Amino acid sequence: MALIVQKYGGSSVANTERILHVARRVAARAREGSQIVVTVSAMGDTTDDLIALAQQVTERPSDREMDLLLSTGEIVSCTLLAMALRDLGVPARSFTGWQAGILTNDTHGRARVLSIDPARLRASLDRGEVAVVAGFQGITTETDVTTLGRGGSDTTAVALAAALGAGCCDIYTDVEGVYTCDPRLEPQARKLREISYEEMLEMASQGARVMHPRAVELGAIHGIPILVASSMKDAPGTLIHGDCGMEPVNKVRGISHDTDIAKVTVLGVPDRPGAAAELFACLGGSNLAADTIVQNASAHGPATDLTFTVGVADLRRALEAITPVAVEMGASGVITDDRLGKLSIVGTGVLNTPGYAPRMFKALADAGINIELITTSEIRITCIIDQGRIPDAVRVLHATFELERAESTPG
Amino acid sequence: MALIVQKYGGSSVANTERILHVARRVAARAREGSQIVVTVSAMGDTTDDLIALAQQVTERPSDREMDLLLSTGEIVSCTLLAMALRDLGVPARSFTGWQAGILTNDTHGRARVLSIDPARLRASLDRGEVAVVAGFQGITTETDVTTLGRGGSDTTAVALAAALGAGCCDIYTDVEGVYTCDPRLEPQARKLREISYEEMLEMASQGARVMHPRAVELGAIHGIPILVASSMKDAPGTLIHGDCGMEPVNKVRGISHDTDIAKVTVLGVPDRPGAAAELFACLGGSNLAADTIVQNASAHGPATDLTFTVGVADLRRALEAITPVAVEMGASGVITDDRLGKLSIVGTGVLNTPGYAPRMFKALADAGINIELITTSEIRITCIIDQGRIPDAVRVLHATFELERAESTPG
Fold this sequence. Notes:
Strand content of chain A: 25-35%
Oligomer: homodimer
Number of helices of chain A: 11
Distance between the termini of chain A: 28 Å
């Protein structure tokens, strides 16, 4: 019997009416004879509301307490969905993260799944029940409740699919799939039928807000195909998978962008081994991840400039962490710019195929858009530009790479 | 080092402002050098709000799902209190029912505590932390979450006090203690300094809404003194305990009352062994507890009348359960009255001491109040009367037994 893991996001279960809608969808699949595990996010703004409550009692909530507090949001939605399914005559049972056997490390607030013991879920499925699992949460070996951080429910779904050997993991959300770029910026944006894990990772980590990169990564590691589709419409979604009968490589698949990026430049860093390591170690110590890092070659002397980007929200903490270290090591200054955006073209082979990079840079130049920083990966070329020019830049690149044109049938 | 268990009810933690107030109280006790375990109810109307959500998705929520849903309310309040304590510089840690080691049977919705493994709480206390425990909940051996039903957080508190060998269990609530009668009905009602477990049990089960009888029972079994006091004021409360340096027995301690009582009379029940058992077995099968049961002696033939009371809210279900059985056994009919109230005088020895019963009945008669049913226990005499006359009756009996007079100093 086919085993399917489905995930419904917060907007898909924002109120009891939508929960009933989700229940009807799940019930229809169950009646087709599939075994189903469903994982859900918290209803609508629940998580934000709980955070607001915590902030009313303390400015610095303990991560451990916060995790236990936030875990209640997904428990509420999963019990309600189980009740709604039973009301439709579909046997169903809800499970918290710990009841579902999801063991994590103890990094509260952004725990990593260590293993899943699926025995209880299997027993539930074997009884003919739909197993409804609270997303976003797990438990440590010390039986403390943890949460998985941003995108946590996506991670729960893919991890469950891997642990249960499911044939597919369906992520139902408020978008219909993965687009060539943000459809709100470019009306000609086209929904992709399929995309590789690697391309999706680059799209996601560069700001396409469909799915969290961690979940995609987990899918890639375990070879779980992930379908991203709308929870409201019956339209076909985008299949994220590995083995391609895909269309020819060496093509730009999509454009991703992100705003609210700040750039920090440490001027005159002494050009000695370990200087960069020291600077980034102090960021890591403050739980800050530098995003794009560029070190200019030191052609002109014993010092160099080192630039990195962080989210604007983290800029103050980044400066507090890095400034004393920069002073200590004899850097000549720290300067920032907090009105930047990030823009990437993503596609297998874009970097190694001649032509893509210069076409991207020229298109931006023709539109009068200045490039602050450039970084690349195997399948991505990223430019940091003025935040205000992001919408123009997305449209220009979408046209340049003819992304509005329909995909050829994969062969 | 003294170990104290405290419980704060839903109105005491109704919002974050009150949670901060509770945190300051707990912090003050912690700074005096006591080890403290605090258990809390859900914030204000949270439980009702969760029930309403469930009712929006189904008319018949599964008891198991409902328990898991409702358990989130107490988790929210206990994490917030732990955060607030930490913010005051008091080390604190929250625990769900299962984390606190509270094992129950699997009677969802009104589970009984089977045992408590206090190892985790002890470790927390030994680290110098205040342990904040979510009330009202536990876990079965199958790791399903249960709730303890009405008064569940009181039960959690007393059970924890017993398991940890605490010297006292403090129940902080929105009343200042146990009164001689409901102060809203009789302004001269007097707060009792102390009361025995047995008297408190009769007060509670007859409708004094201070504490649930289960918790009092548990206190009696384990010999845990229970202090009932206000969470808002620093006024002395009422100590519920067993060994009395109490004032002379054979005195009415208080008057309790309850409204919304319905009476069911099964007419012409065949006077054979087992008839009553059959009738009440079918009530039990519907999870209904008959409250007061009176069987008239069958002086006049082979049939008798059997009367019992239930809460008005349960009347329809009671009739559905009992009518087919009554018909089956050849009873001649079932009649009901759903506008009754219950009134008791409570005090060690009231039944065995001549004079109390007739004084009670005469006082009610003098006030023109008709008595529908009378039942008694060792320390209680109860009359079922017209619901509309309850306030008069309470005032009349308060005056008759001179309950406004101050207690003599216990010696």
